Amino acid sequence: MKKISRFGLVLVAIVLIVSGCSGAAGNSKEKPLVLSTGTTTGVFYSLGALLSTTWTNELGTQVTSQGSNGSVDNLNLMSQGNVTMGFSTVNMMYQAYNGVGNFEENQYKDIRVLANLYPNVSHVIALEGSGIESVSDIKGNGFVFGAPGSATAIESKLLLEAHGVSVDSVNANYVGFTEAVDLLRNGQVEAANIYTGVPSSAATELISTVDSKVLSFSEDAIKTLTDESDYPWNFKHTIEAGTYDNQPEDIITVGQFSGIAVDANVSEEKVYELTKALWENLDKLKEGQAVAEQFDPELAVQGTAGVPLHPGAKKYYKEIGVLE
């Protein structure tokens, strides 16, 4: 009996040690902080690199960024557990959270908002000499919608339809901003939509190297695209004269907020630290990225279309008086 008892005690001890070790590891290890961004010439990509570096330096915790096809791709990567954060436009966050549109078969209830940052704006750019003087003239021409599965591609379809142009009536190309610039430069398409912040590096590069221009939307199209019952996240946006080379007049277009989505399973403490470091290093971000001039913590919690703030972000916004 003594031998059996001793053997039993040894077994119990081993089980306790193993379970204790595995429990400690499971409780202490969070997923790496990875921010999914966008295509290489878009604002998401360069801003993501700057943000991840800033967070790493300020928090002493490694935060990495990676390229992607943009909003839809980012949220799919998040829902699959491949990344913990991603840039996205508000309409895609809304679709993911509610399981509609692009996420009808893949609802992502664990999406949360860390911050809305700046307006994402459609730049419909056409080659001079193409005969395209308005968005409706794109009918029958080659047009770049954006990368497959991106918010740009979705917005391109909507803006064409709002101008009476069906998708079937154009020579459609689905590529990212870099490829879009190349196609326009080589005369393989006549127009493209660069859906990003202002100023856009892709639009700047294109307009400065190729004889091209940004087109204004028609008033009727703007009314359609900003209808609150259908598109509550959209708003009329003016790209001020002189923003790009050879742009003597204001360009009237449509935009919505772009922001940072974060998975609900990232700890409240970690998201609080990320949010705090974001806003307390705004001056550094402005030095490294022009679009950061448009960042405003007062706007960070607006226009989220009912997608919840992460508790860690909410804690910080209450702390600075943006939320009650």
Automatic annotation (TrEMBL):
Pfam families per the UniProt record, alphabetical: NMT1_3
Q: Which domain of life is it from?
A: Bacteria
What NCBIfam families does this protein map onto?
TRAP_TAXI (TIGR02122)
PROSITE patterns given in the database record: PROKAR_LIPOPROTEIN
Instruction: Write the protein's name.
Output: TAXI family TRAP transporter solute-binding subunit
Stretch forming the signal peptide: 1-24
The alphabetized UniProt keywords are: Signal
Record's InterPro entries? TRAP_TAXI
Q: What CDD domains is this protein classified in?
A: PBP2_TAXI_TRAP
Alphabetized SUPFAM superfamilies for the sequence: Periplasmic binding protein-like II
